[in-house]
Amino acid sequence: MSYQDEEQMGLVGSFGYGGFELENETQRNPDQKPRILLMGLRRSGKSSIQKVVFHKMSPNETLFLESTNKIIKDDINNSSFVQFQIWDFPGQIDFFDPTFDSDLIFGGCGALIFVIDAQDDYLEALTKLNQTVTKAYKVNSRIKFEVFIHKVDGVSDDFKMESQRDIHQRATDDLADSGLDNLVLSFHLTSIYDHSIFEAFSKVVQKLIPQLPTLENLLNIFISNSGIEKAFLFDVVSKIYIATDCSPVDMQSYELCCDMIDVVIDLSCIYGSKDNTDVAAFDNQSSSLIKLNNSTILYLREVNKFLALVCIIREENFSRQGVIDYNFLCFREAITQVFKLRLKNQKMENSELLDNDNDSEYKNSLSLNGSVKAKVHFEQNE
Ligand SMILES: Nc1nc2c(ncn2[C@@H]2O[C@H](COP(=O)(O)OP(=O)(O)OP(=O)(O)O)[C@@H](O)[C@H]2O)c(=O)[nH]1
Ligand SMILES: [Mg+2]
């Protein structure tokens, strides 16, 4: 089967991607990297989220985290596929403080995550949410606004649904009152004690990847030709999935795939790298196959040193593994093409820009309008 895809690159332009980077690009000024802001009231769980998702802190350890008293900038850089900065804010940030430079803070921001503690009274948080969003939107209307209704581990399912509905209703009403009817807020129920925080963060990061439709298309074609039930493209270190096929994501499959990555990394750490502890546990030879007792197979293949494809396959469809492996190589080749072309476009645009304009803020929000064509031939697994 032949596949042709054309993509208009746009929006949050200059995201860097680990493993598909130009040398000079990895060394660019960290302040020019797109950022994700974590805001919300004191003790709502911002620092815990950042530590658990990006620094492998265990949820229980977050009990000992101290309150944040200044903006902490964390560069998610060399260990991860999607390169950005996370800015963790202190709870009681005062927008009217003259030292609060909203142009600088919201200007290069890709997404703003507002964390609300669901175990606490949330009315004050809603007022703050409204203030924050209004302020940020005035500076940069392209920010994606994400609300994490957080700490839902301690509450019943009914309470979760009811508070999500109530928070959604009140927040959108407040925005309408402020004259911002068009502004879209996305809501996620999260907890650091299960996989929901990784799932929610995956969705936030995905919105910032201009190549997402292409990646999703490739995954759809890959799974339909290979007899695969579900496939996730994972950023290995953070366990964020940066794309999946169009079938709905159920939490259990996502958890299984996350756990598989942990198992593979743990085993590789113990048995893989012999005496040389400098060698990363995950490399371009990494692959793994786990048979579950419900006639399902989990199959992991590396895509590049930061990315892995994890597939859920019915055992009977795995009899022609050669076809799946061949299609995987096509898929990997296509992804490489997509990012290589993106880099080429970006390099061209950057050099034009450098000639014409030295404004770093403009470069940061640069959008790429070059179109990308990826041509791949998949085999049919029948
Ligand atoms: N039950 C539960 N507790 C959580 C969760 N996330 C964070 N916490 C707890 O919430 C408390 C506050 O967490 P922090 O991450 O320090 O909160 P913060 O928003 O960074 O607070 P400031 O820095 O003061 O603004 C800690 O005791 C965490 O263990 C969660 O998902 N569930
Ligand atoms: Mg904090």
TrEMBL record:
Its main location: cytoplasm. It is found in: Cytoplasm; Lysosome membrane; Nucleus. CDD domains: RagC_like. InterPro entries: Gtr1_RagA, P-loop_NTPase, RagC/D. One of its GO terms (biological process) is positive regulation of TORC1 signaling. Gene3D superfamilies: 3.30.450.190, P-loop containing nucleotide triphosphate hydrolases (3.40.50.300). The keyword GTP-binding applies. It catalyses: GTP + H2O = GDP + phosphate + H(+). Keywords: Cytoplasm, GTP-binding, Hydrolase, Lysosome, Membrane, Nucleotide-binding, Nucleus. One of its GO terms (molecular function) is GTPase activity. One of its GO terms (cellular component) is cytosol. PANTHER family: GH16429P, RAS-RELATED GTP BINDING RAG/GTR YEAST. Belongs to the GTR/RAG GTP-binding protein family. This is Putative small gtpase involved in nuclear protein import. It comes from Corethrella appendiculata.
